[in-house]
Amino acid sequence: MKSTTNDLPARLLEHAEWRDELASPYDEKQAKWAKDLREAAARLERTGWRDIATAPRDGSIFQAWMTGQGSSGWWEPKCHFGPNGLLGVWRRFDGGYGFDYSMTNIKVTHWMPQPSSPTLVRS
Fold first, then answer.
1. What distances in angstroms separate CA 2 from CA 7, 14, 44, 95, 112, one per listed residue?
2. What is the pLDDT of residue 95?
3. Tens digits of per-residue pLDDT, 39-96?
4. Range of the domain at 74
5. Is the same domain home to 15 and 60?
6. DSSP string, 94-121
């Protein structure tokens, strides 16, 4: 089976389970490797691009990667699937902003969750 980025978190978790099986109660090295693999899988799940087929359909906002119109691709920072099932891309219209559902000749290939807001640091 050919490995893809989308299945990497699952593969890392499989390796972590295998490391756990190898570890005796005194084998700190195996336990540390298993812990590191689980953390890497969690980071990848939080930050990696995912196939658009797995994007939320509940109106949640996400980032998207699109191709089309002779382009090798571009990033759209604010998208969602509307109640009609169509992809909406945040755009400026006359008089304001809103989701544009009229994207044609565009293929959305991947999505990523919105990042969390930065934490304010008070001095």
1. 10, 16, 18, 49, 22
2. 85
3. 766 766 666 788 899 999 999 999 999 988 777 788 899 999 998 899 999 999 888 9
4. 51-113
5. no
6. TTEEEEE----SEEEEEEEEPPPPPPP-
41 & 67 share domain: no
Q: Where are the alpha helices (DSSP H) in the chain?
A: 8-22, 28-47
Angle, to 10 degrees, between the axis of helix 28-47 and the axis of helix 8-22? 170
* Residues 119-123, mean pLDDT to the nearest whole number: 77
Is the dihedral angle over the CA atoms 45, 51, 57, 60 positive or is it negative?
Answer: positive
Kindly state whether residues 22 and 59 are assigned to the same domain.
no
Q: Let me know whether 55 and 44 are in one domain.
A: no
Token pair, residue 49, equals 């691009």
Element (H, E) at 92: strand 87-93
